[in-house]
Design brief:
heterodimer, A: 226 residues, 9 helices, globular, B: alpha/beta, 6-stranded mixed sheet, 4-stranded antiparallel sheet, 14 strands
Amino acid sequence: MLKLFFSEWRYNRNLAIFEGVSYLSVFIFLMRDEYNNYNDVFAFMMFSMFFCFFIMFPISARRSIGEKRPRLEALLPISVKTLGQYYLFGLILYNSSIFILWIIFYLIKYTQPEPGLIWTMLSFSMHIYIIFLLAAIGGQYGHYFKKFRGIVAWLTFISSVSLGIFSISTVKLTYSMKSIESPWLKTYLNLIKSPSGALFMILLAGLMLFLFYKLHVNRKYYLIIK
Amino acid sequence: MTKAIEIKEVIKTYPDFKLGPFNLDLEPGKVLAYIGPNGAGKSTTMHCLTGLVEVDQGSMKIFGKENKPDRTDWKFDLGYVGDVHVFYEKWTAEENLKLLKKFYPNWSDSLVNNLADRFRLPLKKKAKDLSSGNRVKLSLILALAHSPKLLLLDEPTSGLDPVARKEVLDTLFEILEDGNRAILYSTHVLSDIERLADELAFLVDGQLIVRNEKDELTESWRRISFQFKGPLAGISSAVSYTADDVDHQIISRNYKDTMHHLQETGAQNIHKTRLSIDEIAVEIMKEKM
């Protein structure tokens, strides 16, 4: 598994450098004194989510599906189970590294503990998982059920983009509660700040991870991509 | 002796296509041409054998090992070149080779260099910049470099122009003529594999219809022309029959039988000519379609 993981890392090195430099630039920019207020962690989160959903994810998806590399990997002497674990490991590592960046940012910026902010960060980290996994599961489902491939592909695309925009908007709204009148949205925003809300998001993301893994273990069904 | 391939009662069903149930085996060192029209199920068989697709029923063994997706031991004996050539596109041919080297203990660098020289493959070029012919060559090197005992070739030259196809096939056959490995070669252009094949298996609509030794087929099939006044019926072993006044022509799957029958009925000026393996294949498939 590690051989494949490091190969993928080496293959995507330029993309990783591009991502690292982008994060670092924004990190340094927001660390400046004049941005020393409650918004900066949210600004960093908004940037991360925008970057993930609308830059990194399309590039990665295009490379993986367009190049059909999963098919090459499936022919290697690696069990399907290990391949499933490798994909899952990659996804968890990627998302966790984003969450860790948020935590580092928070720890540097805030000397006083703000538990509400931690739960919010955790909830939004789970949002990233959920949206990534939704797109991945939809993509696999679309390949498996060939008859509905087009519909599922469009549904997946539209729902991923919508959820991405919704999540980023939610980050913005979370620190500007005054203007919100909708009781539903208010409840939702309050929920993601709470430990129970974060736990719910973790459970939802966990369920999606489980589904994703199961589909990857059965990935042989969707590898025949013409 | 353990068979290179052992397929037993395999069924794979798609919404619009069903492969099998069928049985197929291949002895080590033998070359089996797997022939059928487009959509007959050749690629599906290959995908099942390589583990890209799981069968619904039955079993498939590679050198006695079941090709289950959770096992890897059977993959070390296997080399596969499909009709789609997949690489790490941004990497050079050399880097792609280096990646695969990590997974195969039997990998031979000297064999890779030898093959690359013979194929005249530009190893320093990125995969995405390789021509169609060179992509096939790289796929072949990737499949051969770990010296697999079984090679699955699924129309590897499809999409190539005639010159590139001939170049790839000539070099490939030079390499494969050592006779040490079993080969299942799927194609619908039989002349591609005629030189190498020991046996021919014909697949139509997901069913294996005929399997024969190549020599047996070429020895028994003939085009027979003769003259006879009046119509002829019930000609033994005739696959096709045309008549123009007194001139008749038959394609026979067992020319000795047919000749004997014609002589008994009083046919005149009987001439027989050999059929090419392509012509035989067309007749077999026409008969079953």
